[in-house]
Automatic annotation (TrEMBL):
Gene Ontology MF annotations: proton-transporting ATP synthase activity, rotational mechanism
Family: Belongs to the ATPase delta chain family.
Full protein name: ATP synthase subunit delta
InterPro entries for this protein: ATP_synth_OSCP/delta_N_sf, ATPase_OSCP/d_CS, ATPase_OSCP/dsu
The keyword Ion transport is annotated on this UniProt entry: yes
NCBIfam families for the chain: ATP_synt_delta
Functional note: F(1)F(0) ATP synthase produces ATP from ADP in the presence of a proton or sodium gradient. F-type ATPases consist of two structural domains, F(1) containing the extramembraneous catalytic core and F(0) containing the membrane proton channel, linked together by a central stalk and a peripheral stalk. During catalysis, ATP synthesis in the catalytic domain of F(1) is coupled via a rotary mechanism of the central stalk subunits to proton translocation.
Organism from which the protein derives: Chitinophaga arvensicola
Topology term for the membrane: Peripheral membrane protein
Subcellular locations according to the entry: Cell membrane; Membrane
Amino acid sequence: MQNPRLASRYAKSLISLAQELNQLEVVHTDMLLLQQVMKSNPDVVSLLKSPIIKADKKQKILAAILEGRVSATTISFINLLVSKGRESALAEMTTEFTRQYMVLKNISPVKITTAVALDAATLDVIKQKIASETTQQIQLETAVDAELIGGFVLEANDQLFDASILRDLKDIKQQFNKNVYVSDLR
């Protein structure tokens, strides 16, 4: 079920409740755990989306999976979703909760992809440089893609900065294919 408006409303409500109960950080940690559980175990997602399994069974199964791992507030929220028949959108809601949490806390996610893994000192320098360009806190995520050959790709605030060797090679190939000098002679 793809319903961003529904996910946004439930996430906003959960953030409000968590703030009211002074449990915002706890619930955020719970949402990250739920995202990890659903990503690593597709059977949980299938369970949530199954129209055959009754709501009370879903609640019992989810309680067994999450008991002792998430807060009572999160369990109550999940039970509410199941009782309202909205459990199939839980994955979207956890993602939206995380997005709204980051906006609320003024945190900007930044992803840097390199050809080889970067050491901690280099990551600190990169994080400081990015932080000097913005007023937001930086949450740096790293990825390794050997196809880049060298350089890096930086994604931040819906912008992409590609300074990789792969991109340079593609640009050169495109220029050779275009070859304005040959087309002028014909």
